[in-house]
Amino acid sequence: xxxxxxxxxxxxxxxxxxxxxxxxxxxxxxxxxxxxxxxxxxxxxxxxxxxxxxxxxxxxxxxxxxxxxxxxxxxxxxxxxxxxxxxxxxxxxxxxxxxxxxxxxxxxxxxxxxxxxxxxxxxxxxxxxxxxxxxxxxxxxxxxxxxxxxxxxxxxxxxxxxxxxxxxxxxxxxxxxxxxxxxxxxxxxxxxxxxxxxxxxxxxxxxxxxxxxxxxxxxxxxxxxxxxxxxxxxxxxxxxxxxxxxxxxxxxxxxxxxxxxxxxxxxxxxxxxxxxxxxxxxxxxxxxxxxxxxxxxxxxxxxxxxxxxx
Length: 310
Description:
By secondary structure, the protein is an all-alpha fold. Helix content is about 80%, strand content about 0%. It has ten helices and two strands; from the N terminus they run H-H-H-E-H-H-H-H-H-H-E-H. The protein has a two-stranded antiparallel ribbon.
C-alpha cells in the first residue's frame, strides 16, 4: 500500500512539473522563432515537436541497453496512435475548432503518410535491419532540410519590437530539461504502478510507456490550443510522429538488435497507419472540428480496450 501511495505521489508531482515546464518551453520557443521570422507552424513542427519527443528517444535507447528492445516499437506505435487520437482529439475539443493557416498537404502530411507506410513495410518480416535504420535516419534529415528550406523561401515577418534575450533562451533550456525530467519520472511512476498491478510488460510498452512518453505532447499541445495557438498543436503532432518513426526507430537500433513483437505487427501497426490516414483526411479542408476531436477520442478508447485484451 505504501508503494502505491509513493508512486502515485511521484506521478502527481512529475505531472505538475510537466504542466509548468511545458508552458515555459512553448512560450520561449515561439518567442525565439517569431523573433527570427519563423512561423508558428514550423516552430511546432520542429523545435516543439522534437523537444517533446526526446523522452521517447531516451526511453527507447535505455530499453535497448537494458535488454528490453521490444519496448522500442511498442513505444513508437503506441505514441503515434496516442499523438493523433488523444493529443489531437483533446486539442480539437479544447480549441473548439483548429484552423490551419498552413497547407500541411503541401509536403508535411504526405511525408507523415510515407513514414507510416515505410514503417509498416519495414517491420513485415519482424526484423529491423541496419540498412533500414540508416534509411530512416536519412528520412529525418531530408524532412528537416526541406522544412527549413521552405521557410527560407517564404520567410515570416517578425512582429515589430519582438526580441529574444538571454532569459528567453535560458527558459527554453530550463523548460526543455524539466519537460524531460518530468516525463522521465512520470514514466517511472507509471511503470512501477503497472508492475504492482500485475500488467503484462508488452501491454505496458504500448500503453503506459507510450502514454508516459507522449505526456509532453499532450500537455504542450493542450496549452497551445487553450492559448489560441492551435497551429502549434497540429505541427507538434505531425513533427512528433515523423520524429518517432524515423529517429526513435532508427537511432536505438544502432545500439542493438530490436525485437519486434508479432501482435504489434498484426493489430497495432495497421491501427497506427489507419489513424495516420484519418488525420490526413480530417485536415484536408484545413480545419479539425470539435466533433472530429470526439471521433479521435473514440478511436483512442478502442485502442486502449484492444490493449487489455492481450
